[in-house]
Specification:
The protein is an alpha+beta fold and 466 residues long. It has eight helices and 23 strands. The structure holds tryptophan and zinc ion.
């Protein structure tokens, strides 16, 4: 939940025009054309509309205490149109080599893009691999999703104290690996992380190997379900791994920096119970593993990194733990087709807090009133975000949650649960737009369901509290 930090700190897809006819920018090296972007309405320059990355195989060599990183990324790509050049997002350390299908390829780092000329043209629908080797110090990326700009976090591969960890939402992933950095293009991951002996690496996914050789520990992780790039995390440091008994089929492992006090760990005591509770409302938890990784920074907001949510080193309320766990369904498994629909992440995770509170015997009223009061303190807007600074504002969280409350009040608990579960089952592992949720709500709840949500969706005015 990002607002905790704030309190503390007081186009359409570019399908038109063949790439060869794209304008040549003066800063482009000879032989390259300007990249087009994926077409996200908030970050139009990010990504490449010609690419569907299906899998990232990442090898990361880290040495805690230093901020240098050696990386090798192998991207499995399917062409969404005929291609002669691709533009990956990459603001990372120096590239030492690029290959396409194993053949050396001409490349250029221009701004935050890594342009690669394909050794031979690729037909629409064809699959190919891109291998990028790089080495150096990843530069952090200013978080543009805060207002005023510059007041926020720095995203990417963060080195602090005795370790490093990753915090990328919304656009920090391309600081440490080349990628199609839009949530609409989810992918699965194989991760190979090596650190000096005495250090531990944990990452998104199931750990499949851990081996010590030549003074280093090699650990592999496999995540077969597609996730957005910003949801990938890796933590390295002097970490203690603590397991909890999970529901059948789900392993729970948490990573705490050595010496993490009990009052920081306590927020996660009820993870097994929360997993069961949320599965009751949303349907089965989407991954075979879950847990949290606590960073060494007491100030960062928590982030829903896939299968391994990232937390600050401070005592958090259990509702924050519940919020990040809810994002594993809403954000990680069902990923955003466009950043403008971010309320599909934040509104749903915020609403889950109310569902949990009710199950603990609390009344919904005061929580609803709190959300509503917060909205009265900032300019009202409809639910579709139109600029980066709106992504994590009160409208995404509280107006999003109140939209779901208005729906639930209209259709009742059984239909509401059915809508949530159907939406999750239908779009698990896929990208979603607001219309996808509204279609499910209309199908199962009828026109009255849509009418109840309409004034919240369209705005800008704040409707009466539901
Ligand atoms: N998605 C986070 C939450 O609400 C908030 C968030 C947005 C965030 N960008 C971030 C947290 C960057 C940490 C870093 O749970
Ligand atoms: Zn959230």
């Amino acid at each position: 939940m990002k607002r905790l930090l704030l309190t503390l700190a007081l186009s359409g897809c570019a399908w038109s025009g063949a790439q060869t006819s794209a304008p040549v920018r003066p800063d482009l090296p000879a032989g390259f054309t300007a990249p087009e972007g994926y077409g996200d309405s908030i970050f139009p320059a990010l990504g490449d509309a010609g690419l569907d990355v299906t899998h990232y195989d990442l090898t990361l060599s880290a040495t805690p205490g230093t901020d240098s990183l050696q990386g090798r990324a192998v991207l499995s790509v399917t062409a969404r149109r005929p291609l002669t050049q691709i533009g990956l997002d990459f603001a990372g350390p120096g590239v030492t080599g690029v290959k396409v299908n194993g053949q050396p390829a001409q490349h250029a780092q221009v701004g935050e893009k890594l342009l690669v000329r394909l050794p031979s043209p690729v037909a629409a629908g064809a699959a190919f691999t891109v291998t990028v080797a790089y080495s150096g110090t990843p530069a952090l990326h200013p978080d543009t999703s805060v207002s005023p700009p510059g007041s926020g976090l720095r995203l990417g591969w963060i080195t602090q104290g005795g370790g490093s960890y990753v915090l990328s939402e919304p656009d920090g992933a391309h600081t440490f690996f080349p990628c199609n950095d839009v949530p609409a293009d989810g992918a699965s991951y194989s991760l190979h992380v090596d650190v000096p002996t005495g250090y531990t690496a944990v990452a998104s996914g199931v750990q499949t190997r851990r081996q010590t050789r030549g003074g280093r520990v090699y650990t592999d992780f496999e995540l077969s379900e597609p996730i957005p790039t910003y949801a990938l995390t890796v933590h390295v440091g002097r970490l203690e791994l603590v397991t909890q008994p999970g529901p059948p089929g789900i392993a729970i492992r948490n990573a705490f920096p050595a010496g993490t006090p009990g009052n920081v760990r306590a927020a996660f005591d009820r993870t097994p119970e929360m997993l069961g509770f949320l599965a009751g409302w949303f349907g089965p938890y989407p991954y075979p593993v879950y847990g949290v990784a606590v960073s060494e920074d007491p100030q960062i907001p928590a982030l829903e990194t896939a299968t391994l949510s990232t937390f600050p080193s401070r005592p958090e309320a259990p509702t924050v733990a519940l919020h990040e766990l809810s994002h594993q369904w809403f954000g990680d498994s069902l990923c955003l087709g466009d950043w403008s629909d971010v309320w599909l992440n934040e509104g749903f995770a915020t609403y889950a807090e109310l569902l949990w509170a009710e199950a603990q015997g609390q009344a919904a009223g005061p929580i609803v009133d709190r959300w509503y009061a917060r909205l009265q303190h900032e300019p009202a807007r409809g639910l579709t975000a139109t600029e980066a600074a709106q992504l994590f504002d009160a409208s995404s969280y509280d107006r999003g949650a109140l939209t779901l409350h208005a729906l639930r009040r209209k259709v009742g608990d059984d239909v509401f649960r059915n809508i949530l579960r159907t939406y999750v089952a239908r779009f698990s592992g896929r990208s979603v737009r607001a219309a996808d949720f509204l279609n499910v709500a209309g199908e199962l709840g009828g026109p009255a369901a849509l009418e109840a949500m309409q004034p919240w969706l369209s705005g800008p005015d704040l409707p009466p509290s539901p």
